[in-house]
Design a protein that fits this description.
heterodimer; A: 478 residues; mainly alpha; 78% helix; globular; B: mainly alpha; Four Helix Bundle (Hemerythrin (Met), subunit A)
């Protein structure tokens, strides 16, 4: 490995190293605070090394990993989200029994897996990164092991994710058998040249698509989402909703840029159907829920539908629109699931809608932040969610994709209804005689993280130009 | 060679089907071992001799033995009486996996006698080629795979360890 390659790889190496340091530290002294500190130091070191790596980028490190500006940008996003989840997890697990250090180790390793995903240009590394992410998540989803629901969610995720990964692996094997390479770039070139068995390659791509679609929880592969989101500890839910989906989106984006937007019409039609179904199924089912975590799970299905619209209808704008929408989605999802974890009590999580009744009168600060997050999810002006949706609509109008745009508009209205339902119940006068599950004590670190996130969302909603410039230089530099 | 490939594949499929339909874990493990051996023969007919050897040594040899130990140590249900143990020796249980294993051994002999190195498809891959690609081109993959094992280990430790005192009370640690 040359020096440039080593420097380029340093963000990933540092995150892996941090996992080992946390493990070693735990064998001497088990402490929630120490593990959090080491984890944050690891993420901070990785984030700093991104600037270092940016000087040598783009660097191809073996055929497996390409550190270019797109990868660096998404690595930054993934590491920041991972650090936020660690901060939320500190307060959440402090209230609960059992060892906490493993949470940070698994979190770091899952983040490493996501980091490999966003920087990969090879199906072998895609599979390894995905497995690292998924195997860490099995344990994270079932982390509160005294709670049957959490274990049940872990088991469900284990079985379904394994099945979906085998689809992906079989697709990759077929592609390799037909094309003789696993590198994205070479594969795209070979497929473009033709001279292979169409049906086999198309079938293989469909199998790979199933693996990717499962991670993104697009309809009809969304069945696991509500159950897993509901059962997993709230900080882990935040991680599944953001990092896991964000990393997969980065893979899709890389493939999209390689193909150069020249996607056959039949595939576009299929993707449009999936996007429309995801939006409608997600939003309509969210209307029927009384559990806040399930509402947010269905809303995340709908949001991935919107994201897919940005891919399909984006044209030249697609990479920018997708990245902006993803950032807005990740920040808000982190905020909403983070809020569930911050106001959860010791005995159980604050997940029923009635736990939020009159929250504003008990905890005005948290209620205000939560309302801002929900507004951003709904796409109300002055929030990042609005700019994301605006990007989407502007790109779609440019391409004249009216059916998709119509669905986005209808679904935004549907979404507004259930987001406002939560907001309305927070500001309603407290009616229930017995107090809800909301904790009396406040997790300071978690609340501070959420406040920072809320400020970020509003900042991005009012002054989006800075981020847009950054995104442009990242995605167009590829 | 072609016939050996298809027969071994059929054995692998059948044995795997038996694994998921057996109610007794020990029987399932026996069939799982046969399935892994059959996959090893498939590898062998395809020219991946080294992978075939690893499959036999690591999977069929080491991992399945661990499975059997685990089942033994977990001690599910009441301790087995001598009568139950002698039940394990009735032909109905061991004839199936044994017959399949004998079939596989026959295939293996046939493949070796019918011209050792000739290959069904692709090219012959020896241990040196595997080593070079693992530690030169794909060394990052090997490193990351070690992280996967670590993640699995940490996860299994966390989920599998005994209750902590404060956890059992549902207290607040």
């Amino acid at each position: 490995m040359t020096e440039a390659q080593f420097v380029a790889l340093s963000p990933l190496i540092l995150v892996g190293l941090a996992a080992l340091v946390v493990m070693l530290a735990a064998s001497f002294k088990r402490s929630n605070g120490l593990a959090l500190g080491l984890t944050l130091a690891g993420f901070a070191a990785s984030l700093v090394s991104l600037a270092w790596a940016a000087k040598v980028a783009p660097v191809q490190v073996t055929p497996l990993i390409l550190i270019d500006r797109l990868a660096l940008f998404y690595l930054g996003l993934v590491f920041l989200t991972g650090a936020a989840v660690a901060l939320l997890g500190h307060g959440y697990f402090e209230k609960r029994a059992g060892y906490r250090d493993e949470f940070y180790m698994l979190l770091l390793m899952a983040t490493l897996g996501a980091g490999v995903l966003v920087a990969t240009t090879h199906f072998a590394a895609l599979f390894i990164g995905l497995e690292l992410l998924t195997i860490s998540l099995y344990a994270l989803v079932g982390y509160t092991r005294t709670e049957p629901r959490s274990l049940e969610a872990g088991l469900k995720y284990l079985v379904l994710a394994t099945v979906s990964t085998s689809f992906l692996l079989f697709g990759v094997a077929l592609l390799y058998a037909e094309l003789g390479t696993m590198e994205f770039g070479k594969m795209v070139d070979l497929i473009r040249q033709g001279g292979h068995r169409e049906t086999l390659v198309n079938g293989a791509i469909a199998l790979v698509g199933i693996g990717i679609g499962f991670k993104l929880a697009l309809v009809p592969l969304h069945m696991w989402t509500p159950d897993v989101y509901e059962g997993a500890p709230a900080p882990v839910t935040a991680f599944v909703a953001t990092v896991s989906k964000g990393a997969m989106t980065a893979v899709l984006l890389r493939l999209y840029l390689l193909v150069g937007g020249a996607i056959p019409d039949s595939v576009m039609t299929l993707l449009s159907v999936i996007a429309i179904l995801s939006m409608f199924v997600g939003n309509l089912l969210a209307l029927l829920q009384d559990n806040v975590k399930r509402i947010l799970a269905y809303s995340s299905i709908a949001h991935l539908g919107y994201l897919l619209v940005a891919f399909i209808a984006g044209g030249n704008f697609a990479p920018e629109a997708v990245t902006y929408y993803l950032i807005a989605y990740m920040a808000t999802s982190l905020g909403t699931f983070g809020m569930v974890s911050v106001i959860s009590g010791r005995e159980r999580e604050a997940e029923e809608l009635r736990d939020y009744a009159g929250l504003f009168w008990r905890r005005p600060f948290e209620a205000g932040v939560f309302a801002a997050m929900l507004m951003s999810l709904a796409g109300i002006p002055l929030t990042a969610g609005f700019i994301g949706k605006f990007y989407l609509l502007a790109a779609g109008v440019d391409m004249g994709a009216w059916v998709l745009l119509g669905s986005v508009v209808i679904n935004s209205a549907l979404g507004l209804f259930y987001y406002l339902r939560i907001v309305a119940s927070m500001y309603a006068a407290e009616t229930s005689a017995k107090p809800g599950a909301a904790a009396r004590e406040v997790a300071l670190l978690g609340s501070a993280t959420l406040a920072a996130l809320a400020l970020c969302l509003i900042w991005l909603g009012v002054f989006p130009a800075g981020l847009i410039t950054l995104i442009r230089s990242a995605v167009l530099g590829v | 060679m072609t016939i050996a490939f298809y027969v071994a594949s059929a054995v692998a499929l059948f044995a795997t089907l038996m694994v998921v339909t057996r109610r007794n874990p020990v029987h399932a493990v026996l069939y799982l071992m046969v399935s892994l051996l059959a996959v090893a023969v498939v590898f062998f007919t395809l020219g991946a001799h080294f992978a075939a050897a690893l499959e036999v040594i690591i999977y069929a040899g080491a991992i399945i033995v661990l499975f059997v130990f685990m089942i033994m140590l977990l001690n599910i249900g009441p301790p087995p009486s001598t009568r139950q143990e002698s039940l394990l020796l009735t032909p109905g249980i061991w004839v199936g996996p044994s017959a399949l294993s004998v079939l596989l051994a026959g295939l293996f002999l046939y493949v070796i006698l019918a011209g050792g190195r000739s290959v069904q498809a692709g090219s012959y891959v020896d241990a040196k080629t595997v080593g070079i690609s693992m530690f030169e081109i794909y060394f990052l993959g090997v490193e990351l795979a070690s992280m996967i094992l670590l993640a699995g280990l940490v996860g299994a430790y966390h989920l599998g360890k005994r209750d902590l005192p404060d956890e059992a009370e549902g207290g607040n640690g």
